[in-house]
Amino acid sequence: MTRIPELSVRPLAGLPMFAPEMSIAQEICNLVGAQGDALRDDDICVIAQKIVSKTEGRALDLASVTAGGDAVKMAAAARREPAVMQAILDESSEILRATPAAIIARHRTGHVLANAGIDASNIEGGDAGTVLRWPIDPDASARAIRQSLQEIAGVRLAVVIADSMGRAWRVGTVGTAIGCAGLTVVEDRRGKAVDLYGRTLQATMIAVADSIAAMAALAMGEGNEGTPVALVRGGGRWVTDEDSAGAASGLRPIEQDMFR
């Protein structure tokens, strides 16, 4: 029987409110050091999308958005403000559903989610029309943060950028990896492992990055906890230096989309 190492997750309390051009990596290292600890080899650093977007200047004042004809029509059907609909269109490659219940979009990165990731929660000015968009390239953001963390701390680790997303046929949201660096995104067990009765696995592919993002997001919280970063330890078997396509490599190709 294969032994799985124990996993632990530790949300980091005490980080500052992030603003454009602040260094997430430096703030993490400062805080961990102040707590009498240090980043270690094989740590997995899970970072909330919100603070990445804030440091990259991805806030948007909806008052500055001019809605086009398509946005106006969709907004009327979905009972949304035209500026919000235009912002969603600008972040999307495709609108899959636009109804009063939900706007489901294929983000230009390939992820499918509500409102193309545009959100006003936990954002200064959210009540006055300021929203936050995803990083332009979440995988590139993860790679940059990972490089900075490794240079500052002198260790080998992984970075996951997580956001809360809904799932087809399920109620509620779950933490999901939208950016990833230094981590096996999907572990393909097909033909490489056996079950308890010695049968070779035929279909098992483990969504490692999403599973770690979900665990960390549950510990980090979704409201006013103020813990947008968590350290996951015990997952060294999935930390890697091999090149990968990041979280995007875990997306199902459009031609395999079973809900179209």
Automatic annotation (TrEMBL):
Task: Report if keyword Metal-binding is assigned.
Answer: yes
For this chain, one GO molecular function annotation is: coenzyme F420-0:L-glutamate ligase activity
The keyword GTP-binding belongs to this UniProt entry's keyword annotation:
yes
Which InterPro entries did the record assign?
F420-0_g-glutamyl_ligase, F420-0_gamma-glut_ligase-dom
Key words, A-Z: GTP-binding, Ligase, Magnesium, Manganese, Metal-binding, Nucleotide-binding, Potassium
Pfam families from the entry? F420_ligase
Q: Where is the Coenzyme F420:L-glutamate ligase-like domain?
A: 15-234
Q: Which PANTHER family match?
A: COENZYME F420:L-GLUTAMATE LIGASE, PTHR47917
Its protein name is Coenzyme F420:L-glutamate ligase-like domain-containing protein
The species this protein belongs to is Novosphingobium endophyticum
Q: What is the lineage of its organism?
A: Bacteria, Pseudomonadati, Pseudomonadota, Alphaproteobacteria, Sphingomonadales
